[in-house]
Hints:
Elements: H1 2-17, H2 23-39, H3 49-61, H4 66-85, H5 112-120, H6 127-142, H7 146-150, E1 157-158, E2 163-167, E3 173-177, H8 180-192, H9 211-223, H10 233-246, H11 251-258, H12 263-284
Antiparallel strand pairs: 1-2, 2-3
Amino acid sequence: xxxxxxxxxxxxxxxxxxxxxxxxxxxxxxxxxxxxxxxxxxxxxxxxxxxxxxxxxxxxxxxxxxxxxxxxxxxxxxxxxxxxxxxxxxxxxxxxxxxxxxxxxxxxxxxxxxxxxxxxxxxxxxxxxxxxxxxxxxxxxxxxxxxxxxxxxxxxxxxxxxxxxxxxxxxxxxxxxxxxxxxxxxxxxxxxxxxxxxxxxxxxxxxxxxxxxxxxxxxxxxxxxxxxxxxxxxxxxxxxxxxxxxxxxxxxxxxxxxxxxxxxxxxxxxxxxxxxxxxxxxxxxxxx
Length: 288
């Protein structure tokens, strides 16, 4: 704690002399930093990116407003940038930590029951129905982006080892595991297809589906469901990530599966999970 106080005093002096901040602003900075120090007992040199993320999750958990959380993130960013400038730290734990946009609505996602209802609402007798059901199963099994889905080729699927080779943004390749159910659906669809093409998902005329086609298919499917949410193909990706985190998956693992270049992009799903958890808590706890 002695080290923290020493560095804090140096930082406050920097704010007063170099930044010419007002007394009220400096007091606010000091209070925000002290709250972080109270939360994390680690020495400053031992702090990692994960420690900052856990602190942000804690702030969400105690119902702090996004404007407040963003202010604290900004304070921590300024503080650790100062420590790096003064060569008091070897690494900056604030790297890749982004502020949450205050007015940005958290993306909709479906519950597990809603996902099951949506998939089960589609039959398999008709080839196009089987195709649409397979698309849904595959999206939920892998969390693919729509553009990744429409470009998926037969040789991208390793049926033996049960994974997909996916080419994502910036032509970055990643491997994504796939469920047995989704694999069986893909295999069944490919066997019943009339046209030969390396691309997996085809129109009734044998042409590769476009992203617009996938969205049109979803629009028709959702019309049959009594779900009061803005559902798009990307909603299935949101649901995939949220359900994994709700069941204890590591954030870094979800980042790899989604193909996010930055962990901060994946953090949104942590916030979704926590807000849903709080909603259930308030609804079902006797004193909620």
